[in-house]
Design brief:
Shape: extended
Order of helices and strands: HHHEHHEHHE
Low-confidence stretches: 237-248
Number of helices: 7
Number of strands: 3
Structural class: mainly alpha
Oligomer: single chain
Mean pLDDT: 84
Helix content: 40-55%
Distance between the termini: 62 Å
Strand order of the largest sheet: 1-2-3
Length: about 260
């Protein structure tokens, strides 16, 4: 048993003993007993899964997600000129549309088993399906909110401070996330909240609670980015000239060392 096992709260790194793996969360084995895996043969496992459409949909979505990669979104947009800004915004909208398409495909796969979800009686499968549906929908809601702001920027926005030249997409804080969340986000929250309510003190509830605490909306912030061209050798401290004796990137010659006195 792990020496720092605490089941009722997160374990901090400072509480972790030396030469011991730092694990943040532990779960009560008496609670987790209800969620133990079904240790059967692979063929029997697949037969049981195919017997219930919600199980089959969950496995299909899991396999589908392995072939689906969603890149981290671009969140900073520097306005060097209007043409370059329009170009990067168009590329960001294209990436958002592609990510939205992937998530809609996953949602369609999971939705094929939605009608059979209430017939599922095994807690592990219940929690797994509800969490997957909630995560896909909440991710879809966040991308839709971001895509709406990208469309707004494409239509043209003016900086409040004329000195600024950079737009930054930032997730709203919990306190300021007061935008209408829409049908997709509301459905996601229902699924995630059901995981929290029906499967407390489990890994599924921990993940669902994290998703519920993260905001859905985004907002535009404006900043200033220094676009002044940097000359050769410019850097921290303003040094880096040819005669300072330091090794410069791109110079294949090793730095000179003083000859030791004999």
């Amino acid at each position: 048993m792990h020496p720092n096992r605490i089941v009722d709260r997160e374990v901090t790194r400072g509480e972790t003993a030396a030469f011991t793996a730092h694990l943040k969360h532990f779960f009560d084995p008496h609670v987790m007993h209800r969620y133990r895996p079904e240790y059967v043969s692979r063929s029997q496992y697949l037969r049981q899964a195919q017997a219930n459409p919600s199980r089959a949909a969950l496995l299909a979505a899991a396999n589908q997600s392995r072939n689906t990669s969603i890149e981290s979104p671009r969140l900073r947009f520097v306005r060097r000129d209007q043409a370059s800004l329009a170009s990067v915004l168009a590329e960001a909208r294209k990436d958002a549309a592609q990510a939205q398409s992937h998530l809609l495909d996953l949602y369609a796969t999971l939705r094929a088993g939605e009608a059979a979800r209430d017939r599922e009686s095994t807690p592990r499968w219940q929690a797994g399906y509800d969490l997957a549906m909630g995560q896909v929908l909440i991710a879809l809601a966040r991308i839709q909110a971001r895509a709406a702001l990208l469309a707004q920027a494409t239509g043209g926005m003016s900086f409040t401070n004329p000195r600024n030249n950079t737009w930054v997409l930032e997730p709203m804080t919990r306190e300021t996330d007061d935008l209408p969340s829409g049908e997709v986000a509301e459905k996601a929250k229902r699924y995630l909240q059901r995981v929290v309510d029906q499967h407390p003190d489990t890994p599924w509830a921990l993940i669902a609670r994290h998703e519920l605490q993260a905001p859905v909306g985004w907002r535009w912030l404006e900043e200033f980015t220094d676009l002044t061209p940097r000359g050769p050798g410019a850097g921290a401290g303003g040094g880096g000239g040819a005669g300072d004796g330091r090794h410069r990137r791109g110079d294949s010659r090793p730095p000179k060392r003083p000859v030791p006195k004999l």
